[in-house]
Structures are given as C-alpha cells and as structure tokens.
Amino acid sequence: LDLSQAYKQCELEEGSRNYCTLTTMKGLFRPTRMPFGISPAPGKFQKIIDTLLSGIEGVTAFLDDVVVGASTYSELNKRMTIVLDRLKNAGLTLSIKKCEFGKTSIEYLGFRIDKNGLHSTDSKVKAILDAPSPTNIKELQAFLGFVNYLSRFLPSLASTMQPLYSLLKKDMKWNWNADCDHAFQQVKKIVQTNRSLAHFNPSLPIRLTVDGSDKGLGAIISQKYPNGEEKPLAFASRSLTKAEQGYSQLDKEAAALVFGVKKFHLYLFGRKWILANDNRPLLTIFGPKRGIPTCAANRLQRWALFLSNYSYTVEWVSSNKNSADWLSRAPLPHEFNEEEGSEDPSVHYVFEGDLPLSYRDMVKETKKDKILQKVIMYLKLGWPDEVESELKPYQRRAEELHLEKDVVLWGYRLAVPTTLQTQVLEELHASHMGICKVKAIARSYVWWPSIDGDIENRVRSCEACNKTKDNPVKSTLVPWEWPTQPWQRVHIDYLGPLANRYYLVMIDSHSKWLEAFESKSLTSERTIPLL
C-alpha cells in the first residue's frame, strides 16, 4: 500500500505553522499540512503510522509504504480489512495506482521479497551492468556506492575492486588503465552471481562461520533448515589495517571472530548460536567451557571477555569446507577511524531462553486483557472525559502512557496484563527481599494500578520469609529517675481479685511507703474516692 501525498495528509498544529513559513515573491505563506523537507517530518510520520497500525500481525510500514502479509489469502483479506479500516478512520488516503494486492513477490526498499528470501532487483542489477566506465572520481564513487548497496548478497568484491579503490586514495592522480577497466567489467559479472539471501527464522539454529587470512577478515551468518540445507542470511568481509597485518595467524582468526560477532550482533545477542572455524587453538581459547588463559596476550583476553557476553557452542570445520575462508582472502576495503578497535565495554545481558516471561508472552496476554485493550484504544483515539473505575489509574497517567511494539508502557515501566501479575510478583520476590527492596526493583521495570499493595501482601504472606525473619528489636530499658522527696512520684495499681475483693495499692517511690485500700470493683466511681 502506498499513501498518497504522505506528509501532506498530516495537519500541522497551530503552534508549529509559524516555524514552517514559506517565503515567496508573493509573500509569506504558512502551511497547514506537514511539508516535505523539514527534519522532524520522517520521524513524526513514522511514529504516526506505527501507532496507527500497531497490534496487527503481518503488517510492516516504512514511512508511506505499508506491507501487509499472510500465509493464506483469507488471512490476508482479514488483515487488509483491518488496515484499511484504520487508515479510513484516521482520514488517510491511498494512491491506488501504486498499490498492489494479492502478490506473492514484491519490491520493497530496493529489494525483491518473496517467501524464499531477499533478492536483488533486476532493475538495480541492470543499472550496474549498463553503467558506462567512470571518467572521474565522482562517477567512480557513485558506481562503487551502488555496488556496495548489494554487498550483503556478495561473498566478496574486494579482490576485484582493489584497482578501483586505489584510484580513491588521497593525492592519487586519475588514471583509468587496463587493470581498472578489467576490474570494472569483473564487478559486473560478480553482481550477477549471488542474488538471494534467506529470511531470518528465530526458531532455527544460527551458525556464524569466520576466517582470517593475510588479506582480510570474513564472516558468514547462516541457518540450517530441517531438511539439512544451510542458507546464508548475509555475508561480510573487510581488509586488515596496517597494525592487524602484523598479527599472528591466531590473532587474525580471533579478529575475524570479533568482527563477525559485531557485524551480526542483532542476530546473535541473547540467543544460542554455533561458531564455526578451521583453527583449533582459537576454538580452545574462546570455547565456552574454557576459562580465559592467564598466559594469553592482553588482546586475546579482552576479546575473550567481550565474547563472554554471548552464548555459543564451537564447531571445527576443515579449511576446504570453510566458506568464510575465501571471504577473508578477498575482503572488502574498509575505512577505519580512530575509535575503531578500542576496547569494548562489558555488557551484561539476560539470555532469551532463561527468561521466565518473554516479550511474546507479554504481547499475547496484552491482546487478551480487556482493560489494556481499552487503554490501547484510548491511546490511539484519545481519552474520553469519563471512564470506568478500573481505567481511572490509567487515565490519570494518560500523558505518560504510550504504546511500544504492542505493549503499554508508563514511562519506561511495562504495564503488566492481569493474567501475568501473579507470576511477575513471584519473580520480584524470588530472592525473598523485603517490601521496600521489592518495590524499588518493581518501580524500575513494571507497573499496574495495585502493584504496591500486591507487593506488600505477597511479602507479608511469604512463609519462607516469616520463618527466617529476625525477631523484633528489643527496646532499651530506661530506668526511672530517683525522686528527691516524698510524693514526687507514686505508683498505683490494682491487686486481685483476692477472695472476691480488689485492693488499690499505692507506693511512694522515695520513701517506699505503701498504702492499700479495699474495693469491690474496678470502676472509676469506686477508684476516685479512694484516691
């Protein structure tokens, strides 16, 4: 789906119109709609679209381009109806000429996408094949930039493109020779070789294959399917810096591992994955079952500490089966800055498989929670003046609530669905901390209207805590001051019953003189005359 006149469908608030004033030969004009070209427009429009279409499965939007996908036509029609209804209710219109319905393959953001994966488009490949030979540096930079846009599909381009990159060096005189022309034609051939990458599937095992050589570093991230076929998700390679060229082979292999992990961090972090390499000593040093060797170089120790943030198993492969080996021997040129190569901070993370509650659980239960669904509806359409009593705690925080990836957040705290509140309470009190500490932790992560009272009740009813908690602190005994004269202080109390009688006993603290009076009852009427 393609929205017509994307930004101009969004009305500008009165206070923002002055800042977008246009100066023309006919005077000053204030736009009433969001104009193209202002810096906040893309982010603001993207937020509007994300909020509008949130909660619909199979829907992705990038600015004014919306993709609705499903595994069957009936499911597609249901989702399409929901999307069109929301767009209609929001007053947004589509450019019907640019919309495509019921397609099994689409072109989106410069790539062709179908059920098999991501592919380079025929138009982009044809543009590279038809490109004339560059006549200056600017034309060469434009060509190389266009080729690099497809670099994720290509195992390597560096060995072929090296003569072209040499023309970009500082103070290099332009000289388009036979080597450059040969490299230019070879690039066109390479672009046609590998044009497909598989879709990432979170349920399949991830495999990172790395290799380091004298020329560069290479990495391939792939997934193995149930039928035994292994498909690549992306390729990456780079050349070595001058300092790295002096590394030992072991250090080069380690550098390739760190390069691959950083490059594909979003795929690897928080998940279990397989590291494949053809260097046995490297796998021994960085294997998860081995500690960091005390005799290892400082560089290796830093890298081992960095890799300890990831959960992986190691697998040795022979060189002739290591796909990354060729990548490292034909790396892509790489520009380095001063910050690159600096020591990485250690990151603490929670492994996804160890989480008692996952993001999917939160989204699933949020969609079932009637209260939160009403909150989400009001966040999108606006809050009414009067709401049900169970929604008033949310209404009081209306300005601070927002929707993020199908869950409700109060600031940075997650609004927990009713069905998961008990489980969250158990996790908060799992280490049997007191009320104050549990509340402090909860206030950093989660919220629901009665959370404080629920925490207090849970901690007070914890049998383990009650058995092990300390006895009440004994109060300090404070002795009476010694009276300096008689009748300065007297102590009075009733004694009895003795033989159905009570006795009012009074003792003077100074002289210890004792007086006792018989009484039939303890009422104030009988006590006052005796005093």
TrEMBL record:
Keywords: Endonuclease, Hydrolase, Multifunctional enzyme, Nuclease, Nucleotidyltransferase, RNA-directed DNA polymerase, Transferase. It comes from the Eukaryota. The keyword DNA damage does not apply. The keyword Hydrolase applies. It holds the Pfam family RT_RNaseH_2. Coiled coil: none annotated. Its EC number is 2.7.7.49. This is RNA-directed DNA polymerase.
